[in-house]
């Protein structure tokens, strides 16, 4: 694997921003078309998800995000531990050309990223809701809640994960090519992974495993594992 492919190569080889690409195309669409549609893309305690199903879920969530106002260049905070849903969210954000923000502390994560939308675990919602409410009230923010549990959804702000996927499936998101050098993910430590990051060219010959926390290595491992056609194995508790 040589890394992501360009929709339009840089006109200036020294300036990647003159080209357009999107790593999610290489991690999902290209592989589904290339014959690995039924291969496992994600393996977790909940079972296996094929590349074809993962692509469908990512496009659906991307459609929901676009319907909620997320556009190219926006920030989306993912206040959820690595899980099948969080990976779908990460890929959906990148698919529509926005930037994912991840971190260990949900409140500060939301404050720093000033996001157009938040994806959060239900058990993180007290901190997330307080942080969202403290942001500029003139800019409405939606929160997609993974596993709401006992969290009482606020009708004007919150939407549960499964209904969100169903709603987005009515108008799934296409891939939005972005300029080279565009941040795919920004981590809590300030590290960023771009769509054309050289580390994404890492190739694997077997499924890759990830842990229970977000950092630059986790992001690169997920994308490289998917692009290799080998898939990702999550912590057994997820």
UniProtKB/TrEMBL annotation:
InterPro entries tied to this protein: AMP-dep_synth/lig_dom, ANL_N_sf
Any matching Pfam family: AMP-binding
Domain of life: Bacteria
Transmembrane segments: none
AMP-dependent synthetase/ligase domain residues: 38-100
Name this polypeptide is given: Propionyl-CoA synthetase
Organism expressing this protein natively: Mumia zhuanghuii
């Amino acid at each position: 694997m040589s890394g992501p492919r360009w929709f339009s190569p840089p006109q200036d080889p020294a300036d990647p921003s003159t080209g357009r690409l999107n790593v999610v195309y290489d991690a999902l669409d290209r592989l589904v078309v290339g014959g690995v549609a039924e291969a496992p893309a994600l393996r977790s305690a909940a079972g296996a998800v094929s590349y074809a199903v993962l692509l469908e879920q990512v496009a659906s969530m991307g459609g929901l995000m676009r319907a909620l106002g997320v556009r190219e260049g926006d920030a989306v905070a993912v206040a959820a531990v690595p899980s099948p849903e969080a990976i779908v969210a990460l890929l959906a954000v990148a698919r529509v050309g926005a930037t994912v923000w991840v971190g260990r502390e949900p409140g500060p994560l939301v404050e720093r990223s000033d996001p157009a939308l938040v994806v959060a675990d239900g058990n993180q919602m007290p901190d997330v809701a307080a942080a969202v409410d403290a942001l500029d009230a003139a800019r409405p923010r939606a929160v997609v809640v993974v596993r709401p549990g006992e969290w009482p959804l606020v009708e004007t702000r919150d939407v549960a994960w499964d209904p969100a996927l169903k709603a987005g499936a009515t108008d799934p998101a296409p891939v939005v090519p972005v300029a080279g050098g565009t941040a795919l993910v920004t981590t809590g430590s300030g590290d960023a992974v771009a769509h054309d990051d050289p580390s994404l060219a890492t190739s694997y010959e077997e499924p890759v495993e990830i842990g229970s926390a977000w950092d630059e290595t986790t992001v690169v491992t997920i994308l490289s594992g998917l692009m290799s056609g080998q898939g990702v194995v999550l912590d057994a508790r997820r």
